[in-house]
Amino acid sequence: MVVDEQGDTERFLADLTGFLNELAPASELQPAGVAPEAPDLLVDSDQLLAETEALLSTCAPALAAESSVPARPADSDNTKALDERRREIKNAQAAKRRLKYRNKLKNERQTLLEQEKTLSEDLASLQHARKKVKSLQEKSVTVPLWKGIATRQMEGRLVAEEQQRRLKSAVASRAKAIAEVKEAMRQELCGASCLNICADAGVVTKQEILQLDADDVALFEDYLQDMDIVYAQTNQAFRDSGVEECPPTSYRVEPGRKWEGDTEYFESLDVLLIPFSYHQASSAMWQAMLRVHQQNDRQHYRGVADPDNTIAVKLPISCSREAGGSVNLLVHLVTRRYVEADRMVIVWRAMTEGEDEFSGMHSDETGWCVVRPNQAESAGYEKMQTIMQTFSRFVPVTVAARRADKAQADQFAKLVVTSGEEDGLEISRMMESLLLNDDAHTGTTVLQSTGTHVSGGR
């Protein structure tokens, strides 16, 4: 039994040595310099053998107790276990080699896939660039001649448009400068320098030269702001005057003295039928006022917002007195025209100042003039196509520091009325002249045969 166990031990050691030899490199692959280490290997083997024997001796009692188990089958089981161990080790080594090889193949495949993707992108980019170059070449070959001409013409047009914009800007700048110079020249010609030249030439006297000072400008500005308010009162003013809607003939209401509380004022009314069309009469009326107020002795205020329809003028008036001699008056007048669909309305504000013995006296005047088509036939007259109605109201004022007696105040009021009538007669003559020149008419005294005259706008 002991011999058999010794034999099994020797076989086990032989198998173990073979297993170690398989794990170790082949002897023929070892360099020559390792031969001296062989005794060490033998010592290790003897040590391993001694330890194995000691292990087996400790296991002998347990094996002896197992009487039902023969020794041979135990040795056979050990052999099988060793063989199974060897196979497992070989299989593990083989699996490790296969896993390493598989990972290597996987890495190589991933690298090849990435290279394929990069090369595909490069190929697509090159194909696109080649196609684009080919397309450009085809287009450059097939572009017709007219397209090139049109391109050149478009470029020339853009250049011309840019030049035109620069020229327009330059023209606008020059036009503005010219307008400013022109306005400055006009102001100069209408101002004191022009009047001085006229005085030196004998056209007007030095006494007739008028200057606009700060008080004049302030007064004109106040009157200009009142124009729209006075215009809004037109209908009410004529209703209060009692004028007829369709008067049968021309007539005039002489200025009458009226009182409102302690305030004294005068009102006058003129109704004139004109045998000319509404458009002719309204145009002649405004043109006559413009011409009358363009005389050399009148100083115009140029700060109006609507010069085509507004007159602001400072003028001297010389009136004859009943007792003989003349009296000088100074008038500030602002007149504005409003053209509606079926009528023309002219409104004005005026302040007349007395001089010399009437110094400190003045009158504040407000007036309305309406020119409109006549809607009814006038009995006993040729068809009068146009009606002109004029209504004015002025209030004489005396400064507190210059209290005058009643007779002198009445005389001043009479002078104001007379000056307004004379101005109205001058406008009437100018208007009649314009109408007769515009349309030859049989009646040469159309505006004065009825005994009335235009009193609008002074």
UniProtKB/TrEMBL annotation:
Keywords: Coiled coil. Residues 82-139 form a coiled coil. This is Unnamed protein product.
